Amino acid sequence: MSGLNIGAKIKKLRQEKKLTLQAVAKEIGFSPALISQIENNNVSPPIATLSKIAKFFDVKIGYFFIEDDDECGFEIVHANQRKSVSKVFAPIGTSHGYSYQSLSFRKQNKKMEPFFLTVTEKANEESAYSHDGEKFLFVTKGDVELILDDKSISLSEGDSIYFDSSIKHRLRSRDGKEVNLLTVVTR
C-alpha cells in the first residue's frame, strides 16, 4: 500500500485540519505512535483502520487508493463525457421531470458538486424536498419556477439564485418547455 502513499494523504488531511498526532489518535482510538508510523508509511494499515481514519476525516475510503497521478488540482469533463445521475437528491427526482449530469465525477473529496440539470416537463408532483448543504442555480435556457417553502420565484435565462438546501424546494418549467440549469451543491 505504500506505493499509493497512503501515509502522506493521511498526514495532509491532518495538517489541513491543523490537528496534532495526539488529537487524531485520541479521536480515532489509536496511539499517536501508530498514527505516526502510518503517516510515514512504516506500517500498512488494515482496511478497518483506514475506514476509521476516513470516517474521522470525512473522506471516502477510496480516497486512499487513488494513484497520486490521478489526484491533481483540477478535472476537465468534456460535454460528451458527462455522466447521467438519476435521482440525485430526492428519490422522486424523475417524477419531477428532472435529469442530472455530473460535471465533476473523478475528483475526490470535493466541497461542492456541480451538475447540469434539465427540467424536461411541467411536473404534476407537488412534493418539495430538502437536503443538507447549500445550492446555487444558474438558468442557461428557459423559464423556471422555483418553489422555496411556500414562496414562488420565477427565474429566466441568465438568472441565478443561491439558497440553503434545508429549505424545502422544487423546480418546474413555467411553460412546460425544457429548462437547463447549472446547479452547484455543497455538502
Structure, explained:
With 187 residues, the protein is an alpha+beta fold. It has two domains: 2-70, Orthogonal Bundle (434 Repressor (Amino-terminal Domain)); 79-186, Sandwich (Jelly Rolls). Helices cover 20% and strands 29% of the residues. The protein contains four helices and nine strands, in the order ααααβββββββββ. It has helices at 6-16, 21-28, 32-39, 47-57; strands at residues 83-85, 98-102, 112-119, 134-141, 143-148, 151-156, 160-164, 169-173, 179-186. A six-stranded antiparallel sheet has the order 1-2-3-9-4-7, with no helix packed on it. A hairpin with a 2-residue loop joins strand 5 (143-148) and strand 6. Helix 2 (21-28) crosses helix 3 (32-39). The longest helix is centred in the N-terminal third of the chain and has 11 residues, at 6-16. The relative contact order is 0.13. Residues 87-95 have low confidence and may be disordered.
Which characteristics define this entry?
187 residues; six-stranded antiparallel beta sheet; Jelly Rolls; elongated; 2 domains; 4 helices; 434 Repressor (Amino-terminal Domain)
Largest pleated sheet? 6 strands, antiparallel
Classify the beta-strand content into a percent band. 25-35%
> What would CATH call the class of the largest domain?
Mainly Beta
Q: Enumerate the spans where pLDDT stays under 50 for 5 or more consecutive residues.
A: 87-95
